Fold this protein.
Amino acid sequence: MLVLVEPLNEQLSDRPDLGIAMLIASCRAKGIATSLVKGQTRILNDIFIHDSKELWHLICSLGIKDLKKLQIFDYKKLIYEKGLRQFCSELEREYNEIIINKSPRYYFNTPLLYRFRYLYFIFLKVYYYYLNTLRCDTLKIAERYVAEIKKNHPRYVGFSLNRFPNPFLLHIVKRIKKEMGIPIIAGGNFAHFISLKEKVNFFLENYFDYLIMGPAEYTLTWLIETLNDGKEPESIPNLCYKKNGKVKSNPLKTIGDLDTLPYPDFSEFDLDLYFAPKKILPLQTARGCFWGKCAFCDYYINYFGTYKTFSIGRVIECVKYLCNTYDCQHIMFHDEALSATRAVLISKALIENKMRHQFFYAYARFENKFVSSSTLSIMRKAGFVAIFWGLESGCQRVLDLMNKGIRISCVPKILRQASRHNIVNICMGFFGFPGESKEEAEKTVAFLRRNAKYIDIAELQVFILSSFSAIASNSHKWGLKVGSKGTYSVQSGMDFKEARSFLNILMAKVDVSTLELSSGELRLISDRRSGYCRYILSALSRRLGIMTHQKVRKLISENKTHRVYPLIPGTIGNQNRKIIFSPVRVNESIFINNRYPYKEMSLTAFERAIISFSDGTLSLEDIMSKVYERFGRGNKKFYIYKKCRKFFHEIFSKELGIAFRRPYQ
């Protein structure tokens, strides 16, 4: 029996791990019994439900010195005052609303999403601190994880680790190695980003017996079969292991024909329990990057600098398989960048195969070929609803420094065409590339403002130096002096601290009123804290149709209440024995309206019921029926309905709500 452990990330993910799914499928295709120990979905459930009592005691037991190190001094005071019962109750409620119920109201609410992400992050920090610094080996969450691995009675355990292996999984590895004495296999993208010396001194001696580099589908199955036969893995490519006290690295080799790989196996994942409003599955149509020249990028290492594609036929077969097998409508293509040519071929094949009611998301470069309206038109017809564009900068000189290979003059044309075809534009960029001045960073901001009408989400970060990127390997070319642990200094332009300060100031002073609005449509502005899970909401909103407030009021007046599915984001609470509704302000929501709504309003019990039902899942007609069931008591139905419609008129006149043309599905 082989047990594979899903990666555990500090940042909440909205989909399962594709690499592990491919390994499960490959092993099972070879007859190797394989099971999965879940990562994020399991940990979330443990933290917010099963182990919340222990977590409260752990935080409250930390001293002032420890709390200051973790930067949660104020948080301890807050939860201590609330007490254990309220702490556990709040965590369970948030978990149920966001993860179990997938409440649209929560996913449209930036502060609530940020709070959930923030809690997950600081709780992991607390666990890491107990494991690493305080050397505590009795945490329930760790004990439960180890027990989950042991109950399968594995002969081998495989861990997939990201670039920076976290203390929790490393603790689990040490426990399994010590208590079970079985071979431990490691892989994942971290394997590419450690030196041979690190492999010798740290991983292979203290943690792992075998380390797989690169694509592992064939390497892992070959390794298991070889070990089962009692042989040495000398001829297995992409493998590091110890022999006679020394580390041996076998030659690297790519997979020749990607079509020979099986479909990814997601059967053991908790697909409905990720941090996303809808189930979404990842899929690759190619491995590597067809451009592969960006100076800041190091992803090419994962596939040894090669670029290989699955056949179009194989891609369509896999899409059909995933959608039918897992009842999934949302597919995220994990290609480093989907070329315009390949996007058209895939789109035509999807249309020919009558793949309807699916939503596709992809990463892409601003290639000239995307300027053509026909390219984006056929993509939208095929079901592509959102594209993550690698903008990086709005300044041509900086793009040339990066060797990005795009012309900034083409970008607005592409954004306009995509927006025209109702494709969500998500522009990713960063500040602080070596040599970029503050004035050039301002050009990026100016570019975003000029094109805000066509940009749905802008994800902005600060440049981080990777020691395996071209700029690090040839640092003198960019006037860069590389220090230890990713630090660097620059001869010209902004350094890391200046770039981070620039971004922080920008985000603090962003005023949604300065963004251009497109003819009454609701637009999106990114909050970089909230993560990518909201792009599904954005894409769904485009697909299903979000109505302007004027349109909603018109439909209500015409008694076409079956066509309005209202969503009123905000919180309801009691204040001085009054029911108070606090709406999400436009700069706290993912949607930008035309003006700020009122901060709060008093509600009657009748109005509270209306807002409670208005979560985007029921039509206005259904809401009125439910309200009548609760408050009818001899009143005539038309009176209750009239009262409901009047209240909705008031809500939408103040722009407190968002409405869909049909159910949020």
Remarks:
- The mean pLDDT is 87.
- Residues 110-132 form the longest helix (23 residues).
